[in-house]
Amino acid sequence: MGGRGPCTNKASDLALCLSLRAVGRGRRDRCLSRRAERAVRTHPCQEPGGAGGTRPQRLRPEVPDVQRWLCALGIRRSPRLLSSHRPALALPGPVVRRTCRRNPVALGSLGGSLRIQNRTGCATEEVWAGVKLVKLSSEEPNRPTRVRAGGRRERSRVSPSAMADPVVPAPSLEEGSAGPPDPTPETKQLPDLIRLKRDGDRLTDADIRAFVRAVVDGGAQGTQIGAMLMAIRLQGMDLEETSALTRALAESGQRLEWPEAWNQQLVDKHSTGGVGDKVSLVLAPALAACGCKVPMISGRGLGHTGGTLDKLESIPGFSVIQSPQQMQVLLEQVGCCIVGQSKELVPADGVLYAARDVTATVDSLPLITASILSKKVVEGLSTLVLDVKFGGAAVFPDQEQARKLARVLVGVGASLGLRVAAALTAMDNPLGRSVGHSLEVEEALLCLDGAGPPDLRDLVTKLGGALLWLSGHSTDQAQGADRVAAALDDGSARGRFERMLAGQGVDPGLARALCSGTPAQRRQLLPRARRQEELLSPADGTVERVQALPLARALHELGAGRSRAGEPIRLGVGAELLVDVGQRLSRGTPWLRVHLDGPALSGAQLQSLQRALVLSDRAPFAAPSPFAELILPPSAAQPGRETAAALVSAEASADLESTWDVSGHCPVRRRGDDAHATAAGAGASPGPGSGAA
After folding, report:
1. Is residue 376 among the annotated active site residues?
2. Has 269 been annotated as catalytic?
3. What was the pLDDT predicted at 496?
4. Is the pTM of this model over 0.90?
5. Active-site annotation holder among 19, 113, 280, 308
6. How far is CA 199 from CA 209, 231, 474, in A?
7. Known catalytic residue at 518
8. Which of 183, 30, 154, 33 is nearest to 93 (CA)?
């Protein structure tokens, strides 16, 4: 190539020559290097002192004819992606594509990026100090293949517009400008996203969607998922990142669509997890009996807490996997269903939920928020009440931390168009008297009979009353609680539970026997452990509390929980409390019955379980209600009308200013910390009536 060759008197042509010369040197391609070197030397647009003895003049560049230069420089296949021999200049202008013989490539510039597409479309990129070489992702369309006579395959030609993304022309460089325009944002690779969050940087919406997409399509390895979860756990997420993660998880699957007539009937409740928490098993059919539609998407055991799905699967034949069409039939015929994540419903959260259980990231506030709300976004609810636990066996032992989580949940829910309220409930003692999957099903049936432990019934009626009030089905919370209690007492809630069991795979005869039988008959129908052991009180005293956490950990060790995702659990393993908090106890009186499948309890296990019993010298007392506060969405707040019901307005979405502490555990309130009254109890409250809709 002699003289001026095909080039024109433009600085951008020289930039291309310099770039291709560096590519040739990096490949040790002498032919390419010599041709590019000759083009640089003979280019009229240069001054002494630049790279290789030349420097481009400060001229306004125009779009180079890349195809012409490729032909002139004799490129027969795409340049290799190397990280050395960096070009000095970037290439402004839109993409111009050239198809070469062995490997179809797209070479050109897009906002300062040099783009190369190979046949496989691998998502690989290298950035060279101003020039990016990118193997485009597999989402870009490959050219179709046709077969010649004789069986030889040939790639058919397509127009540049068919291979390229929509191109926005890059702004040209004015005289005296400092450099090329900023590059167009590129999709980051998963290690880059992990590195960003690990180092405390903020992830964009596109970054978060890319991570969730990799989780769903299998592009993310288990180790990478665990690394990202730990980075989020350690560095936290701001409110915008959490909202983006929630949306991305919800959009990973199908959104449920319901008849328009159900708009104000669709309600749900979700818990952050506790020990002995079987509220969902009772509340869903009770709400259905009150005229609501409850499409409840629940989870499995997480950490030391039990999972609603695991408890229901202790009932032979019960299926937690239901298609959206099956869910609609259940809501039409029964009024409620309790299902798990499937390939259609929030599949990304199913993967992350299982990974959190085995990577010590259960207590991450952004992950808790996104996991809970993503499942609720797809349900198309009108009202959601969240049961946020605090205490020794909860994710957050401190009530103030739980309050902050509750306000974030309410605020993020509002940003996603959900009407969310959050109840703060204590989790120092187990809820009810039974802990363990089949044992908790038995106790839930007792509550559906109108009996059962008073703390369980109290929590069911108050959460249900709040839902009925906020959804406009009752005039206030007290009236709603009375309606739920009536559904438990008259058997209508138990009838809905029986129909739900039959609708989700349980043999109708078994469902009938479970719901109409005595406690002893029910125990014969559910999985049972092979042996039982009773623990005796070591001294006289009043039961101050039964610590739920050591009890749950001991049962987890006996097989009631899982240490790895997908690990089988022993459905019959559990424990029955034989005493109540506040009860006077004599030395040697049995206080706990343990159901186990393995050998007798070891000395260490006995000591751990005995430490769960805390005795005091004070007089017997009535155990307090676990219900502490109700935090309302902003639209439900009515200043000047608060009562002893402890209804706390959740205007925290404005107070939080999208700022969380570095640990990712709790949001940092910046304004209005004193604007939220806090009181205990849950009595009657004036409600929004039809305005709750």
Report:
1. yes
2. yes
3. 97
4. no
5. 308
6. 19, 8, 50
7. no
8. 183
